[in-house]
Amino acid sequence: MNKSVFAPCVLALTMGMWGCQQSEEQPEVISQTITNLNADYAPLVFNPGGPPTRPAETKKYTLFNFRTGQIIPNADSASGSWDIGFRATSIIFNSGTSGPGTAAAQVVVGTFDEIREAPESGFIQDNKNAGPSGFAVLSSPLTPGSTATNHWWQNTGATTSTIVSPIAGRVIVVRTADGKYVKMEILSYYENAPASPNNMVDKDRFYTFRYVYQPAESRSFE
Amino acid sequence: MRVVPLLICLHVALSGYAQLGVDTLANRNLEEVVVTATRTERELGALPMPVTLVGKAQIKSIGSVRLHDVLTEQTGLLVVPQVNGQGSGLQLQGFNPDYTLILLDGEPIIGRYTGSLELSRIAVGNIRQIEIVKGPSSSLYGSDALAGVVNIITERPQPGFKMGLSARYGANETSDLNGEVGFSNKIFSAYLFANRFGTAGYDLSPENFGKTVSPFRNNTFHSKFAYRITPRTELAVSARFFDERQDLNFEVASNGEQIRTSGSGFARDWNLNPTLSHRFSDRLKVTGRFYSTRYATESFLNSERDGSRYYSDSFQQSFVRPEAVGEYFVTPDQAITVGGGYVFETVATTRYGDQGNREQGTAYGFFQHEWTPTPKWSVITGGRYDHNTIYGGQFSPKLSARYDIKPAWSVKLSGGVGFKAPDFRQLYFNFFNTAGGGYSVLGTEVANVRLNELATANLIQSWAFDPSLLGKLKAEQSWSVNLGSSFRLNDKLQGDANLFYNSIDNLIESQLVATTTANQNIYSYRNINRAFTTGLELNGSYNLTSRWQVSAGYQLLYAMDKDVLGSIRRGEVFWRDPETLASQRLSTSEYFGLYNRSRHMGNVKLFFRLPERGWEANVRVIYRGKFGVGDVIGNVQGEVIPPSNKPGNNVLDVHDDFVAGYALVNVAVAKTIMNCFRIQGGVDNVFGYTEPVFIPNVPGRLWYVSLSYTFSKSEKLN
Prior knowledge:
The structure holds two protein chains of two kinds.
Chain A: E1 2-5, H1 7-18, E2 30-38, E3 45-47, E4 50-53, E5 62-65, E6 70-72, E7 84-87, E8 90-93, E9 104-109, E10 153-155, E11 164-166, E12 170-175, E13 181-190, E14 204-214
Antiparallel strand pairs in A: 1-2, 2-14, 3-4, 5-6, 5-7, 7-8, 9-12, 10-11, 12-13, 13-14
Chain B: H1 7-15, E1 33-34, E2 42-43, E3 51-55, H2 56-61, H3 67-72, E4 77-81, E5 88-92, E6 100-104, E7 107-108, E8 127-134, H4 138-141, E9 148-154, E10 160-170, E11 174-184, E12 188-199, E13 216-230, E14 233-254, E15 257-279, E16 284-303, E17 309-331, E18 334-349, E19 358-371, E20 377-388, E21 392-406, E22 409-420, H5 424-428, E23 430-433, E24 439-442, H6 444-456, E25 460-463, E26 476-489, E27 493-516, E28 521-543, E29 548-561, H7 562-569, E30 574-576, E31 583-585, E32 600-610, E33 615-624, E34 635-636, E35 639-640, E36 662-673, E37 677-684, E38 702-714
């Protein structure tokens, strides 16, 4: 996992625009891109007479903390130290039936840059017993013709070969257990984020995403 | 439509031979007569709607032997590969191939196995002319005539005796043999036609197993008899028989394994059309017909490893239609046509879960009023009502008017409604495709029962769509307007322009309904989409000298999904920059439109004629602009067809990958000797353009030579 830190530039921009109005004590927003987060990668095995399987998969979530930008060991899943978890196309938050925390999230339609502030309401905590509406972000693809906005990916491969494409213009806004706000955009599901993934070559279940974390008590992302 | 992966290959194969080329001689004589626009013989120049006529001379001059070759060279017509369906089909004003009704001597050709009709089934050796009516014609012909009607008119006996033989041989071991004999006197006439066509097919990706188009052979027999029982009463019978056999070789992917298979495909159709007409007076003529036709196809593939049956499939369709039509001249400037009939159709196929027949019936009646109030005006009003046992009633009106601003300059306006009935597969599919990745397709008439069974057996893992909302399918509907103008200047220059707009509602698309516990998707059908196509068609021709003529045609086309356009306007559609991977909002000007539509297409043709020496020659350039590919299932000869869409959205926008535009150049030379022998040679696709994955229906360079002999002895009647 690599990360690159953009926080200083963002701050410089804000300061330049708002100068004297900006409180100097306000902590800087954390803005970074996480690449190749392994979400239970396992090679596909074809079975004669049945659907392909992944015998090597662990079926465990890769847990992540936005403030530190670090992966949290899965052994700590019962703690409040993680915010979000990834396994294949499934994305969970630390709340409800997924964890002991109170994190909540929602999908907002728009470009990453134009979402300058988290919504006041509309956050959902995980509840696997509530069916598809029990998760802020669905693991299933957007079906053609559907107007649902809580999917993060769609299939751009042929019927018989799935290519997981993050839907452009979907930003996940998270309220962490300690009440901090994060906006994140998933950029790729394939290793090294190829522009046009080939599912025969590129390894899947590798997330690349960017996010902005607001450490202060504010819904603003600037 | 995401339904028929495996069959792709079969279909591409059955599609046969596509050679691009087509017609020309844009010269239109005012005496040219067409029947399709009004169901009665009318002068082409007097009709108030856009009609293209391709005559025998044009067909002969380009040396083509199958229907798709002729159609591809017409402005506004495009023979497109049906990578997700069967073979190739005809795109007209941006409509998919199954939205154009194709008639043979005014009667529908059946056998739209997966939607579009395989045009290579039609030989051109006995075609007298092809009439293409653009704009909806459901007011006369009922279902399927949304984009228009292509009516193939075959030869009829001429007074006297006529006999002809021709043979053609060309690249890919393609041979074509024709024989015809006709006889007519005052009482009796007969015409017989036979054709044998064979080709070794072609292979655009020799590195892959099997051919792009596998070898096939077919035979066509067509006979016509007419007997004048009384001076006012005539009995005519037309009978046609066609059969085709194709060798199949495919490498198929099954669960990550490559399996080589071989087998055969068969197709057979026949039709019989007895017609009795009686002229009660100079004003009233009544015709009764009993048209029946049947189409059957069958294919199988065996694994080359162990000989086991890998795949088999069969399909039979029958169509029976009694009809009566009366034409009455109320006054010399007003004619009324009234008709009615009943269509009884059946389909049986392995894909419906059992071999039982699925049936439907349609009762219909139509009327048409043609009026020429002054020599400058002509107005045609018409309408048809269809009542179907499954989708209910449909009323299709049409109004057309023509005004001559000057004798050589006219304006035409026509508007009408078209519809397309849900086809049998959308109603009755009960098909589990193991080979295509393991998914099921359920027609709407069987979906609920079958889904209930699965749900009761706890085999449904998740629902993607509420099955109770899968109601009865409605017919797809369109309304259209065509505004055109044509002019003729000093016998040298002529041209026409036509603006068109088609609005289409209730388009039937496949809908993912559920996923089974074995992770296999179940699809059904719904009336989902709304689309429009609009554009401009231009045609012109100029006689440079008495020997040289040049013609050109162009079509501008915008074909878009209305709901996608609405989403883009509301700012709900984004695209992902491939460099930064950041999302950006898509603007309406960045939306390209529907897949497989080219914004620009056109042709330029140069003809040379030296009748006194029997020489003629031509060069034709046919251009198709760039287009996008999507919604594609399956593969061509083992090659997966990559969709144009880049990750981010499922909308074809200017940031996506397009199939580049291309031009095909065709040349032909012919010499007639002693008025009865004709030698012709030519090369289609001179520069050998191919695009194996996206345009498998364009073979490389094709040469041919042909020799024909015609003998005729005229005899004036009366």
